[in-house]
Amino acid sequence: MNTLPDLSCAADIRYGVDPILDAWLLHFMTENNLEYRLTPHVNATPEQLRFMVDLEEGQVYVPCSDEMFEALYRSRPGTDVRAAYNVAWRVLVRMVREHITTREDRLRIIQFSRHRFRLGLVTGILIPSRMMKRLASIFRIQSGVLDPYRARKILYNRRAQELIWTHSTDQQLNACPVQPLACTRLDDLRWELDLVQLKRLFVLSTRCELWREANAPDPGSLDQEVEESGDCMDYLRAIFGPDRPLPANVLYLPDSSGGVIVDLLIIRMLLRQGHRVILALKGDFYFQAPTIWDLENDPILARAVAGAKVLTERSISKNELLRLLREHRFLVISDGTNERLNLYRTSVTFARAWKEADVIIAKGVSHHRRLIGTSHHFTRDVLCFLRGPDGRFGMHFKPKSQRAVKFTEADLQSLADAIIATMQHAHGEGKKVMFYSAVVGSIPGQTKTAIKVLHTFVAHLRSRLEGTFVINPAEHFIAGMDGDDLMYMWERVQRSGLIDVWRFQTVEDIEASFELMGQRVPPAWTGKDSTFSTGCTKEMHIALDEQRRHPELQIIGPSAEKFFRRAEYGVGKYFDVGINPA
């Protein structure tokens, strides 16, 4: 009998190692509806996923804890998987009983859900959160109740706000430290005071019983819980302390309503310290989790985020995101999902927010399972805080992958400015500046050939054109840069007003390049030119903008109309999303 190979952890999963494992992985990915090639309209591209997860070639990301993956990887689902499935079933039944009044409607929803539930039990390969999402979707579609927890979430937020306003809570949060703080510099003392209050707020934020119970207990001593948490609060000093050279970009992932009101106090403190914060709410109903649409229905939550820039767009560009962070410093976005954190399903906006962040602050057990309880490594530092099974407060830190490279806005601007300086120097010597836009990654599997073609033709231009400084974009690539980084950097160069001639690669250029290399044009390159590249299409838009500003700019190559059949360039790619069908 064919058996699956042993795996020590989820990070060991790779395609191409074992055909039996490959078959199981395809089954797992398709049953959980996570395979991009089958459902590209709902799942993130591999490039977008790499914004968040450090993946090697062939490595597969699994959106669950190692413990859960091990249980699903067995030939028969264990009791822990069935227990998680049963929780999903009980939640569904409770929603039906609370919100469906007629017997016929109840029976229809329950019986339909039972068919889907049994199917999941038979396969035994569904991640329990995916089972939960399917059952919740059935309920919402069949009942027409879009957010069965709306009233509960509003209640929790109101109670949390009232708790914060009480005299006892105010005393707990603002009481002077019992132990005197050493002071060698006022800046250091200010940070130490902030740290004391931050610790208290992190602890308070996880005390869900204080707003979920009608007769909530007294908060007790927050400082005592801080002391009992050990050295875990030292992570705050390492991430946000005065020794950190620059203010951080923070992506904040809350857990549930009620607690999000306290989370917003934490965010206000981080903003006051000079950091920039992106709060990611759910894109649609997910039980007690706050959603982007709650801002329209809950005045308490709306008032708590007052002054923030709220973005409902699922996809914004890197340029737009950085501009908004410069102008606002506090953004509220949607993660694009209605389930537990599932990086396959998060929006482009969320993926770019993750990529631009320095640290991810994630709250709650579910975030801990998927970010800390996994052997996968992420591209950004992750700080997770929660209440453990024993009720004790805990904070856990996972540093970003050692292979992860982040190019900050300042880094990209510096790289662009260095290129601009060479253009200015060329002008100072009386030379014309030519920018050459060419296909690089638009032909799958041909990137190395494309770069060779580009180098060959630019060398040919330089040998023929006297007094011309030709910019070859491929000569300025740095390992670790992705499509977003490159487009941001080059747009700064391209809008400098220093380009005299903008040349776009033609079919004739490509044919000449292969002739110079002593080769015939391969079938994959026949008829190709810069209009085949979405990156070049974006650059044509920029070139036309610049020509309107500087009429003396010459644009050489295919006509502009041939470019505009292309879509926006792919997230994190060097190549196309595809041709618009319209």
Backbone CA Rg: 27 Å
Total domains, how many? 3
Strand element count: 11
The coarse overall form would be globular
Structural class: alpha/beta
Quick one: CATH superfamily of the largest domain? Uncharacterised protein PF01937, DUF89, domain 3
Largest sheet: 7 strands, mixed
Low-confidence stretches: 574-582
Strand content: 5-15%
CATH architecture of the largest domain: 3-Layer(aba) Sandwich
Topology of helices and strands:
Blueprint: H1 19-31, H2 46-50, H3 66-73, H4 79-99, H5 103-123, H6 128-143, H7 150-165, H8 167-174, H9 186-205, H10 209-212, H11 222-228, H12 234-240, E1 249-253, H13 259-272, E2 276-281, H14 294-297, H15 299-304, E3 309-310, H16 318-328, E4 330-334, H17 348-356, E5 359-363, H18 365-372, E6 381-387, E7 393-398, H19 409-428, E8 432-437, H20 447-464, E9 468-471, H21 483-494, E10 501-504, H22 507-516, H23 534-549, E11 554-556
Summarize the structure.
The protein is an alpha/beta fold. Helix content is 47%, strand content 9%.
